Automatic annotation (TrEMBL):
The keyword Disulfide bond applies. PANTHER family: THIOREDOXIN REDUCTASE 1-RELATED-RELATED. Residues 4-289 form the FAD/NAD(P)-binding domain. Keywords: Disulfide bond, FAD, Flavoprotein, Oxidoreductase, Redox-active center. One of its GO terms (molecular function) is oxidoreductase activity, acting on a sulfur group of donors, NAD(P) as acceptor. InterPro entries: FAD/NAD-bd_sf, FAD/NAD-binding_dom, Ferredoxin-NADP_redctase_2, Pyr_nucl-diS_OxRdtase_2_AS. It comes from the Archaea. This is FAD-dependent oxidoreductase. Pfam families: Pyr_redox_2.
Length: 304
C-alpha cells in the first residue's frame, strides 16, 4: 500500500493549488480525481476576474495551473475514491483502482451540476443538453438554444453563446437575475432575451432534443418552444458524501465546515474550494487550497 504525507482529493483549482504548495515543500503528495484535472472550471467559457488575465477561457487557465502542479506532484485522473477511513494517525483511502495511506488529507472534491429533474432530461444529456458552452457551443451556431438559470454561470454561458453566433435566450424562474451587475449590464447591452418567471416542465425530441415545454409560473400557461439545445446552469451539489461518511462535519446544505486554516473537525483533514461553500470563485478556491496545504505541512512538521 502506497504511503504519502498528503493526499489531495480533487484536481480542480483548489486541489491543484494545494498540490503546488505541498509539492514545493518536498512532501510526498498526490492528487486523486474521479475525472480530468481542472474540474468544473474547465467549462467556464470566459474568466475575466482572475488576477493576471484580462480574459481567459477556463479550459486554458486550468490547463496552465495543471501543468504547473504536475511539476511538483503526481495527479491520478479517472480514479474514484470509494471509502476513506481515519485510524489514529493514519488515513486510508480505497479507490476503484488501489489503496493508499496518508498522514494528512485535503478534500477539494468540489460540486456536481444539479439537474432539472424533468421528463426527458436524462435522455437528451449529450444529445442537445449541455452544461458547458465552451465545450459544445459551436455545435449550435446559428441555431436556437435556451440557457436555464439566473446566476453568474447562466449569464456567462449566454454571453459566450451569443458571441459565437448562437441564437440564445435565458429562462429564469424568478423576475430578477442573481448574476453580478456587470454581467447583467453586458446581457442587456447585447440584447439577449429573458423568459421571466418560467421553468422547464418537459424536454422532448426524437434522437436529439427538438423542443421544451416552458411553464410560466405567473400565468400558469405552458408553451412549447422549438430549440436545438439546452444549457443548464441551475446550481451545484457538494460532493461531500465520502467526507461525511468518515465523520467530517457538513452544514445543512452538505458543504464541509472548516475553520480559518481550512481544518475540519477531524485532525489532519482539511477542505478547500467549492466543497466548503461560501464565495465560489476561482481565486477563492486557489487561496483556500494554498492555506490548506501550508497548514497541513506545518502540522506535519510539529508532529515530526
Amino acid at each position: 500500500m502506497e504511503e504519502h504525507d498528503i493526499i489531495i482529493v480533487g484536481a480542480g483549482p483548489a486541489g491543484l493549488t494545494a498540490g503546488i504548495y505541498a509539492g514545493r515543500e518536498g512532501l510526498k503528495a498526490m492528487i486523486i480525481d474521479k475525472g480530468v484535472k481542472g474540474g468544473n472550471a474547465n467549462m467556464a467559457p470566459v474568466i475575466a476576474n482572475f488576477p493576471g488575465y484580462k480574459s481567459i477561457p477556463g479550459l486554458e487557465l486550468l490547463k496552465n495551473i495543471g501543468n504547473q502542479a504536475e511539476k511538483y506532484i503526481y495527479i491520478r485522473e479517472y480514479e474514484e475514491i470509494v471509502e476513506i477511513q481515519k485510524k489514529t494517525d493514519t488515513i486510508t483511502l480505497k479507490t476503484d483502482k488501489d489503496n493508499y495511506r496518508t498522514k494528512s488529507l485535503i478534500i477539494c472534491s468540489g460540486t456536481t451540476y444539479r439537474k432539472l429533474g424533468v421528463p426527458g432530461e436524462d435522455k437528451y444529456i449529450g444529445k442537445g443538453i449541455s452544461y458547458c458552452s465552451i465545450c459544445d457551443g459551436m455545435l449550435f451556431k446559428g441555431r436556437d438554444v435556451l440557457v436555464i438559470g439566473g446566476g453568474n454561470s447562466a449569464v456567462t454561458h449566454a454571453l459566450h453563446l451569443k458571441d459565437i453566433g448562437v441564437n440564445v435566450k435565458i429562462v429564469h424562474r424568478r423576475d430578477e437575475l442573481r448574476a453580478q451587475k456587470y454581467l447583467q449590464d453586458k446581457l442587456h447591452e447585447v440584447g439577449i432575451p429573458i423568459i421571466w418567471n418560467s421553468v422547464v416542465k418537459e424536454i422532448k425530441g426524437d434522437i436529439f432534443l427538438k423542443s421544451v415545454i416552458v411553464h410560466n409560473r405567473e400565468t400558469d400557461v405552458d408553451e412549447e418552444l422549438e430549440v436545438s439545445g439546452l444549457f443548464l446552469a441551475v446550481g451545484e451539489k457538494p460532493n461531500s458524501d465520502i467526507a461525511s461518511n468518515m465523520g467530517v462535519n457538513v452544514d445543512e446544505m452538505g458543504y464541509i465546515i472548516t475553520d480559518k486554516n481550512q481544518k475540519t473537525n477531524i485532525t489532519n483533514v482539511y477542505a478547500a474550494g467549492d466543497i466548503t461553500g461560501g464565495v465560489k470563485q476561482l481565486v477563492v478556491a486557489c487561496g483556500e487550497g494554498a492555506v490548506a496545504a501550508v497548514n497541513a505541512y506545518e502540522e506535519l512538521k510539529i508532529v515530526e
